[in-house]
Amino acid sequence: MQPTTSPSPRDGLIDIDEVVRESSLSRSSIYRGIKAGTFPQAVRVSTGRVAWRASEIAEWCADPLAWNYKVDF
Q1: 4 within some domain
Q2: In a domain? residue 67
Q3: Residue 22: which CATH number?
Q4: Which domain holds residue 41?
Q5: Model's pTM, two decimal places?
Q6: pLDDT per residue of the chain (73 residues) written in tens, 0 to 9
Q7: Would you say 14 and 57 are in contact if contact means Cβ atoms under 8 Å apart?
């Protein structure tokens, strides 16, 4: 039997306020980056609400320039 571990906070979804804090970008810059393909896409959570995969934001924060290449391929 495998030991159970609690999920990491990086495995979940985070809202725009947390994305702004983690990325140090403004909301406008985030949405501009999404449109340009240089920032992770949001996931629709419900009508009128979106969130981001925490793991993708962490990956983007670790190497923002590599994200553009990831999207292009």
Answers
A1: no
A2: yes
A3: 1.10.238.160
A4: 12-72
A5: 0.77
A6: 444 444 445 469 999 999 999 999 999 999 999 999 999 999 999 999 999 999 999 999 999 988 776 655 4
A7: yes
